[in-house]
Write a structure and sequence with these properties.
Structural class: alpha+beta
Number of strands: 14
Number of helices: 3
Radius of gyration: 58 Å
Strand order of the largest sheet: 1-10-13-12-11-14
Shape: rod-shaped
Order of helices and strands: HEEEEEHHEEEEEEEEE
Largest sheet: 6 strands, antiparallel, barrel
CATH architecture of one domain: Orthogonal Bundle
Oligomer: single chain
Helix content: 40-55%
CATH topology of one domain: Helix Hairpins
Length: 418
Amino acid sequence: MMSSPSPDPSAANNKNNRIRIKLLLGIVLLGIFLVTGYWLAFLRYRAVTDDAYVMAESARISSRIPGTVLRVLVDNDHPVQAGQVLVELDPRDYRIEVDRARAGLARVEANIRAAELSVPLTDTVTESQLQAADAVVQGAKDKTQEIRHRLEELQQKRNAAQAELQHAQRDFERFENLFQQGAGSEQQRDRTRTALKKARAQVEAAEAEIAAARSALQALLQDVDRTRAQRQASKGDRRRVEIEQHKLAALKAERAELEARLAAAELNLSYCAISAPISGYISQKSLQIGDRVQPGQLIMAVVPLGEVFVEANFKETQLRHVRLGQPASITADIYPGYTYRGKVAGIRSGTGAAFSLLPPENATGNWIKVVQRVPVKIRLNEPPPVDHPLRVGLSLEVTVHTRDRSGPTLVAESKQTP
């Protein structure tokens, strides 16, 4: 009886190895298929980063005036509302400034009222005086012209009387000689003597009238000079009125200056009550009663926890398909398993390194390419719930869903009306 041949161990091993290789290849292919499917189904339309933090537009509270802290009405972590008084400074120095400005303004107001009453009155009086002087001067000029004409007439009359006198003198002398010689009558001599006396009287009368006219003219000229002097005085008064008007304008300018000073003093007094510009929670309070504060000194901050946003720093290679308005999922290390929802609100116009205190100088020659990160702003769809509040600076993990790529990459420019 013949025995059957025994199986070849090497052939069996080869068969097992082929089976193992096929299984291994199948597992690898299945893994590649699953990974590729997962990437196509989930990771392909996602941009993920754990370099993200909670941010807020916090209000840094400082004093606008120097002063001493009188009361501190809040403490760290306390909620406050917009307009709520946080700190009160000692207002006494600033009240004194307000009172001083008000007193100065009242004094100037009184001076202005007095000037407004006196200047028009002086203006009216001096104007009347000037008009009266002008009328007197004009009347005197007319009267002077009339007297001059009268004087010319009197001089002509005197000349005529002198001619008559000379004629009467010759007649008298002729008839006197004839009478002495016995050729003329006494009656003719007496008649010529009477005519001579009459002619002399006419000449003397004309001389007297001329002298009176000259005296009247001289007096009138003196009156004119006196009236002109008064007119010049009235002109001087008019100049003083202009000066007073300029002084009144200066007083009004001083009033405007004091009104501005009073407004500034009242404004400084109002700054003694430091109020919250926004609603939020107090943080970084660093003052106590009695402290001396200076303008610009940080005394506390107000953090609006209800309006926090996310700043996620993505690699520049992740931003190819990121668009404004895309939804985002946010998880915080402080609340494992809880997810916040938000939307992309903005992509920063530069990398973080470009706006750092010491930006890189890539043109120095010692350059190493480093993937840069760009901040992306994400607004939450709704404020964080009270049982899961977010605090500024918390670490986050952000996932932006990039399937919908129809949105813009830049915020649209707002049109400003002229």
